[in-house]
Amino acid sequence: MSVFVWIETFEGKASPTSWEALGAKSTLANGLGTDVTALIFGENAEALAQEAAKYGANKVIVSTDATLKDWRVEAYAALLTKLVQDHKPQVVIAVGTSRARELLASSAADTDSAMLTEAVELSVDGSRVKVVRPVYAGKILSDAAADTANGTVFLTIRGRAFKPNAINEGASAEVTQVDAVATEDSLNTKVEAFEASTGTVNLTDAAIIVSGGRGMANNPKDPPDGVADPAVWKAQDGYANVLQPLCDVLGAALGASRAAVDAGYIPYAHQVGQTGKTVSPDLYIACGISGAIQHLAGMRTSKVIVAINKDAEAPIFKMANYGIVGDLYKVVPALTAELKKRLGK
């Protein structure tokens, strides 16, 4: 019996948020009285096994078969299902990325097992795994549970809801190599290449996010620095010349509301909300965002929320820890300048 933790990788490197699943494992392993086994598939898996040990894995199962080099759910799910059938772990846990949700749901269906998703709190009551998870676009929290006595429980946790364990440089783990289950001929999907985005911070992993909304279109009397021709000033200039400098100072990711994305101010990849990215940063700064429920659904679990808006009645202020009523084109540059002084940048 064990708790399995799937470590997501890309091009031979572990996703930073994957280690959060090993951080969450302590509650499960201690409560269920079992050890923790990390699962690492694909390129460089054996080297990553030692890294998993430093983050708290007691054992590691790796597979470096060529069919697992690139993400394909058919290959990954076939192997995970076989491991679950062979070892019968009490819980399989992963951080709830799109890949993890797809993988765990596939294997849960294959093994006729229970699945709990988007957990932000975990506890164990006897053989029952209990979670707290946001529902109805995050407006309320729901309690849910599944009993490991009835079989393996598959579980995804919300990213940044749990902290990774402190690194133990002297730790080691028992590593077991296993063969893949699917063959290349049996896989319908072929990966030809990846096209990577450059120059942006991953919103899901970001500890700090600065987002702009429809208010970015409010043409300031004094256009942002860097605008070549104030007569043709556009909202896009606000993102590049007002919000991005604040992001640079804080080491933050640049986000946006759906209204801003739909208006063409910024690409969809930056969208935070119910139809965009769900984020839980330590600090979320909302600039010119009114606070529509669709946007709040994607960022309400942020640790600290700062709202900057000209409208004192904007709904975002009801959720914000700190609010500034004012023109973002005056407030943000002043905030950026002060942070540069205090941070010595």
Brief synopsis:
The protein is α/β, with parallel strands linked by helices and 345 residues long. The protein has 9 helices and 17 strands.
Major beta sheet, strand line-up: 7-11-6-1-4-5-12
Mean pLDDT: 92
Approximate helicity band: 25-40%
CATH superfamily name of the largest domain? HUPs
Structural class call reads alpha/beta
Topology:
Blueprint: E1 2-6, E2 9-10, E3 13-14, H1 18-32, E4 35-41, H2 45-54, E5 59-63, H3 73-87, E6 91-95, H4 98-110, E7 114-119, E8 121-125, E9 128-135, E10 140-147, E11 153-157, E12 174-177, E13 208-212, H5 235-250, E14 253-256, H6 258-262, E15 283-287, H7 293-299, E16 304-309, H8 316-319, E17 322-325, H9 328-343
Parallel strand pairs: 1-4, 1-6, 4-5, 5-12, 6-11, 7-11, 13-14, 13-15, 15-16, 16-17
Antiparallel strand pairs: 2-3, 8-9, 9-10
Report on the structure:
- Helices cover 29% and strands 25% of the residues.
- With 345 residues, it is α/β, with parallel strands linked by helices.
- It folds into 2 domains: 2-186, Rossmann fold (3-Layer(aba) Sandwich); 208-343, TPP-binding domain (Rossmann fold, 3-Layer(aba) Sandwich).
- The strands form 4 sheets. Strands 7-11-6-1-4-5-12 form a 7-stranded parallel beta sheet, sandwiched between helices. A 5-stranded parallel beta sheet has the order 14-13-15-16-17. It has a 3-stranded antiparallel beta sheet with strand order 8-9-10.
- The longest helix is centred in the C-terminal third of the chain and has 16 residues, at 235-250.
- The model has no long low-confidence stretch (mean pLDDT 92).
